[in-house]
Write a structure and sequence with these properties.
Blueprint lengths: L1 H21 L19 H8 L9 H14 L16 H20 L3 H7 L5 H28 L9 H16 L1
């Protein structure tokens, strides 16, 4: 029995060595051009901030994210329109470039049903004013609803105290924003 086990072990070692010799002998070290790390450039930061599609809800949150992204892209000021007065051709071109970037970004992050509504607008100021007029007013109604919910909140015995305290905290935070 001992001799049989020894022969079996020797056979397994022999097969294992042959298997190892048949495997490819490629280096597993990643090349420098195959980086998997974060890109710490302005463009990499801007890509990280890129938003999902805006469908018409949570405008305030979306507005803050758009502000951050367009500030990084140096196009946020285009929402104010071109300043009144005389401008050199270089200043006008700089504004038109910022306007095009602003328009392209906003249209690209709108849901398809909203793109159909706003794609005919050509200036960033007109587009931004239209979005604020339409969706910022909706938040006034939701703020009133939040304040009424906070005012009408009652503690009940069927829920835990921690859940109810969390709910009151969320309502108070939403009413302050």
């Amino acid at each position: 029995m001992g001799l049989f086990m020894l022969d079996l072990i020797m056979l397994v070692i022999y097969l294992f060595q042959n298997l190892i010799m048949q495997l490819p002998n490629n280096s597993t070290i990643q090349k420098l051009y195959n980086r998997q790390c974060v890109d710490f450039t302005i463009a990499g930061f801007a890509d990280a901030l890129r938003l999902g599609k805006f469908s018409g809800v949570h405008f305030k949150k979306w507005q803050v994210k758009v502000h951050l992204w367009l500030t990084v892209m140096h196009a946020w000021e285009a929402r104010l329109g071109i300043p009144i007065g005389e401008h050199s051709p270089e200043e006008r071109q700089k504004f038109m470039d910022a306007n095009d970037l602003f328009m392209g970004y906003i249209i690209s992050v709108l849901a398809d049903r909203l793109v159909d509504v706003y794609m005919h607008i050509t200036y960033a100021k007109q587009l931004w004013d239209a979005l604020v007029a339409k969706y910022d007013a909706t938040n006034a109604g939701s703020k009133l609803y939040t304040m009424e919910s906070f005012h009408d909140f009652k503690m009940v015995n069927i829920h835990s105290v921690l859940e109810q305290v969390h709910e009151v905290h969320v309502l108070s935070r939403n009413s302050n924003s």
